[in-house]
Amino acid sequence: MSAALAALATSVLCATATVTTWSMAGKAEARTSHSEAPANATPTATAPAPTTAPTTTATTPTTGATTSPATTSPATKDKSVRITPSKQPRSEPPPEPTPRPEGRLAAPEIDLGFFATDGSRLPRVEPPNALVQGRDEPGLSPLVGRSGELARPPLVDRSRRLRASPRPPDFGFTLQPGERFKYDILFGGNPTGIAEAGVVSREPGPNGSPDRLRLEGFARTSGVVALLTTLVYDMAAYVDAKTGAPLETGSITRREGLPGSYKRRETTTTFFGRGFVEIQDKRDERSATQRRRLPVDTFDPLSIMAWVRSLDLKPGEKVKAYGLDGTVLLRVDITGKGPVRFEGMPPIGTALGIAPDQVQQFEGSITRVDRYGAAIPGKKSYKMRVWVSTDGRRIPLAVESDIWFGVVRLVLTQYDPPRPQTSSQAPAGPPARPPAAVPAAGPGPG
């Protein structure tokens, strides 16, 4: 009994669910069909909905399943709900091309890979106009095409480049190991310091490189100036034994007394060939390293004094070179004055057998310049005068220079001749002049 009631309840529930589902599907199909119909479509006749036959429920004793006959209309078979949008997606109008300026051809939109490292402006890359208008010069026929562009170039090159300067002639043969010079520094006629310079030795270069010469210099204050401040300056340099060009320079400056920007300064300069230098500057605990490009004829303080000593100029002849003093670049211009009579001959010169008329004088100037050789505005240019003996020793007897507070004069007080050189270390100098021909002895009288 309970099983029959359960089967009957199940059949009733299944029939109710089937009728509800079929009626909902019919309503959805009607709504969809009404929405799909276009506004201007011709109305069509619609068949009446079929009458639903009563549902017969049969219970199988074996399986207990509920069976319903297929009495539905064929028009409602295999119908699926489809939703079609009534509006198409919005499309943006294509952008309008940028108008080209009239009267000028378009440049190719490519990257040519030009990078201006010197601040100059590159010329335009589009082809020039066929006609040049508004730039005709009186008396000349107008040029067209590339000829006109070349005649009137729009490019203004404002870049700065190093000036081409010839290398000084070789003077390494004038530096002989063992030579030493000692000077008194005079200011206003009073001794204010001493200075020394000399050629220490000739050494083979490292790693099989050419021979090099070691130069040393020393200077310190004395006299009344030493009561105010004490300044000690030591320098050592290696130069090429043939050309005299500097290779490496080191200097140490020690200051005591009056306050200054530093107490100890150590500077090491390495010349990587002519025209490029690396400077390591250490002031007390602060250090800095910089690399610079310089003119090819740049010397250090010791080698530029040796270069001036080696000059043999005619009256009015001019030469110039550059000197690097620490981090300051100087230009030295020298003018030959020819042989003169030196009235201020020091006593050591007389002892060495140099006559007052065996002296050659040079005049020049020292100017602080930039890397392009142009004078720096606001920096004073100092005058200098040098007296050198005209004998084979070429001894600098005196040096004068104008500085901002007066004239400083260096007077020779001691000279040590070079040491005898062995055949393997003898410097290669210019070819010696052949001796004058001696006339053959004629027959004696009678």
Could you give the order of strands across the largest sheet?
10-9-8-7-6-5-4-3-17-16-15-14-13-12-11
| Overall average residue pLDDT | 74
What is the CA-CA span between the terminal residues?
A: 190 Å
| Number of beta strands | 17
Helical fraction:
10-25%
Secondary-structure element order, N to C? HEEHEEEHEEEEEEHEEHEEEE
Q: Round the Cα radius of gyration to an integer and report it.
A: 52 Å
Proportion of residues in extended strands: 25-35%
Low-confidence stretches: 1-10, 12-23, 32-72, 103-117, 128-137, 431-446
Largest sheet: 15 strands, mixed
What structural class should be given to the helix and strand makeup? alpha+beta
How many alpha or pi helices? 5
Shape: elongated
How would you sum up this structure, described in words?
By secondary structure, the protein is an alpha+beta fold. Helix content is 14%, strand content 32%. Strands 10-9-8-7-6-5-4-3-17-16-15-14-13-12-11 form a 15-stranded mixed beta sheet. A two-stranded antiparallel ribbon has the order 1-2. It starts with a helix and ends in a 30-residue tail after the last strand.
